[in-house]
């Protein structure tokens, strides 16, 4: 078994064996210590897809590395990419909502909110069945009304390499691996080939450091955080 496979297996074992009870606050020193019993956790999240030319190869790479992630979908990109969405769920990834037209949620009427979030939820539900599909608001912006309407947790992020800016794989990888710590939620966009490549290099680098990749839902579960509708989450540790 090669090192990559061994690392992923250690992750699975550690997560399966970990108790679901809340953990007490730990010191920075304790967080820095990497052991199989208590691996640092990190959640990769991908916004703005799906896009067959980039999301497909990304799913291939994540499967090879046994690294689950979370995909927040733009509703108007689902048509024609249904198999990709089914594949995400079948391969253990978490699927969430990123509005239908990638619009800012602040200030929307209830009707417009439903056309953006409710319509996307209905599309995902039609493909994957009933579930609580969590929300990532475009630009990270959401007001109290929209939080009350969304019916699930609002997932923000704690590490943003701004992968859309220059699409420079080396810079994006460095911006993540030099800033990441236990419990981080990393923001990337699976629209860009450079982001898919960067994500897989991030997985390789951080798995070699002992990190386990989990979905946002798994991250919260492992840390004993009960997801609340309308609450916003950035980092879970
Ligand atoms: Zn977005």
Please tell me about this protein's structure.
The structure is a single chain. The protein is of the alpha/beta class and 237 residues long. The chain has one domain: TIM Barrel (Alpha-Beta Barrel), CATH 3.20.20.370. Helix content is 44%, strand content 11%. The chain contains ten helices and seven strands. It has helices at 3-17, 28-32, 52-65, 82-90, 110-128, 144-149, 163-166, 169-177, 193-208, 216-222, and strands at residues 41-47, 70-73, 94-97, 154-155, 184-189, 212-213, 232-233. Strands 1, 2, 3, 5 and 6 form a five-stranded parallel sheet that branches. A two-stranded parallel sheet has the order 4-7. α3 links the parallel β1 (41-47) and β2. The model is unreliable at 17-35 (pLDDT under 50). The structure holds zinc ion.
Task: Please describe the structure with a list of short key phrases separated by commas or semicolons.
237 residues, alpha/beta, TIM Barrel, 5-stranded parallel sheet, 10 helices, 11% strand, globular, binds zinc ion
The largest pleated sheet is described as: 5 strands, parallel
Please identify, by name, the CATH architecture: Alpha-Beta Barrel
Indicate the mean pLDDT.
90
Portion in beta strands: 5-15%
What does the secondary structure layout of this molecule look like, with pairings?
Blueprint: H1 3-17, H2 28-32, E1 41-47, H3 52-65, E2 70-73, H4 82-90, E3 94-97, H5 110-128, H6 144-149, E4 154-155, H7 163-166, H8 169-177, E5 184-189, H9 193-208, E6 212-213, H10 216-222, E7 232-233
Parallel strand pairs: 1-2, 1-5, 1-6, 2-3, 4-7
The structure holds zinc ion.
The site of zinc ion (ZN) has 5 residues, from loops.
